[in-house]
Write a structure and sequence with these properties.
alpha/beta; 14% strand
């Protein structure tokens, strides 16, 4: 379902309840400010969720808990300043989490403190394919102008 570039400001609870077989939901480049708890609960077959380029400020506890088949989550270019710990922990199939160009916030600070960049670099050197790392564990992808940083999100 492609709803990008529509100037959507809010998404009432129940908006997607009848779309249980939906695999892709693209809400890219709208004006969404908040995600209501339960908004995505019926989307159990969703694989890709595009929420980049909105005005989302926070991620409520349980926002993504029912998205058991989600593989890619795009949250880039939002105004996220905080998130509950382990908000993505139940997303066991999640392989890519995009958070580039988010506001300076506790997310980046939390993982700068816990960075295992050296460990990641060593894994990358040993691996012939960069993508092999993503098959072993989920890493948070944070793009900076000068480099790409990978953070383990087990505690996310």
């Amino acid at each position: 379902l492609y709803l990008h570039n529509n100037q959507i400001k809010e998404l009432p609870i129940g908006s997607f309840d009848k779309l249980i077989n939906l695999q892709i939901l693209d809400l890219f480049n709208n004006q969404i400010k908040e995600l209501s708890l339960g908004l995505f609960d019926k989307l159990i077959n969703l694989q890709k969720l595009y929420l980049s380029n909105n005005q989302i400020k926070e991620l409520p506890v349980g926002s993504f808990d029912k998205l058991i088949n989600l593989q890619r989550l795009y949250l880039s270019n939002n105004q996220i300043t905080t998130h509950p710990r382990k908000i993505f922990k139940r997303l066991t199939k999640l392989s890519y989490l995009y958070l580039n160009n988010i506001s300076h916030n506790d997310i980046l600070q939390r993982y700068k403190e816990k960075t295992e960049e050296e460990k990641i670099r060593n894994k990358m050197k040993k691996s012939k394919q960069r993508t092999a790392i993503f098959k072993e564990e989920l890493y948070l992808i944070v793009y900076h102008p000068s480099r790409i940083s990978l953070f383990n999100v087990d505690d996310f």
